[in-house]
Amino acid sequence: EGSRNIQQTFSLLQVAEGSLNKIADIVRRMQGLAMQAASSVFNNQDRLNINSEFAHLRKEIDRTAGSTTYNGRKLLTGGNTSLNLVSTAAAEAATTGTSEILVDDASAGTYTFVDNPGVDRISLGNGVQTQTLNISEHLEEGVVPDGEHVVVRFDRLGISVTLTGTGVRGAAGQYSNGDLDGHTLVVDESDSLTLQVGPSETSNDMSRIGISDMRAVGANLNLADISIVTLNDARNAVDRLSTALTAVT
């Protein structure tokens, strides 16, 4: 499982790198146009004509960043979430029976489980919204069977939790109903994606990949209002594009 997750990490990075290279090429082209427009040889009508392509390229940066995804997850638009390591449902996996917790689509906040012993239902909520799921068909006498795992998807919350039986490779413990009661998931806003690369939910087996918002409208590139329609605009654009190119490369 760890090897597969490491391979997925490499694949994700390859997707992101391809788009970052494309964005860098666009920024270089915009920089070239800005340098042309910054020459006193051109008049404002010339700059207006050049700015047409310049503005199109700026929109192309946003389109590229917005369409860069891996397994449905946008990689270059920022606004990611990650699981804080203080989350007891993960930190105490040996007693909760969890092996993987995904929170990519969750809102930031603290989520608490209600998991009463003897009842094959699990509830998870953050004080605003709660979802309850019946998992009885996946349990035998209230326990995940040996060698098996159950993925519990709280789709309305954007969270999925994998529960394991004994003998599952990489699993720290076995889930029995009631084990998650009162345990928490703490979801943070983050500029990184969290990926599982080892068997546990500890920091040693989690990889955080920081990929910031790479849209032109984002704070990193800061190109939302850039133009080259006047000589001063063009000269300012050259400096701003140099800074943006450093950010993307």
Summarize the structure.
The chain is of the alpha+beta class and 249 residues long.
What does this structure look like?
- It is a single chain.
- With 249 residues, the chain is of the alpha+beta class.
- Helices cover 34% and strands 23% of the residues.
- The strands form four sheets. A five-stranded antiparallel sheet has the order 3-10-5-6-7.
- β5 and β6 form a beta hairpin.
- 32% of the residues are buried.
- The mean pLDDT is 87.
- It comes from marine metagenome.
Number of strands: 12
- As an assembly, this protein is single chain
- Estimated structural class: alpha+beta
Order of helices and strands: HHEEEHHEEEEEEEEEH
List the total number of helices: 5
Distance between the first and last residues' Cα: 32 Å
The main β sheet shows up as:
5 strands, antiparallel
Shape: elongated
Number of domains: 2
Q: Please state the CA-atom Rg, rounded to the nearest Å.
A: 24 Å
- Poorly predicted ranges (pLDDT <50, ≥5 residues)? none
Order of strands side by side in the largest beta sheet? 3-10-5-6-7
Q: Look at the structure and give the mean pLDDT.
A: 87
Proportion of β residues?
15-25%
Helix proportion of residues, in percent? 25-40%
Pfam family, one: Flagellin_N
Protein name: Flagellin N-terminal domain-containing protein
InterPro entries: Flagellin, Flagellin_N
GO molecular function: structural molecule activity
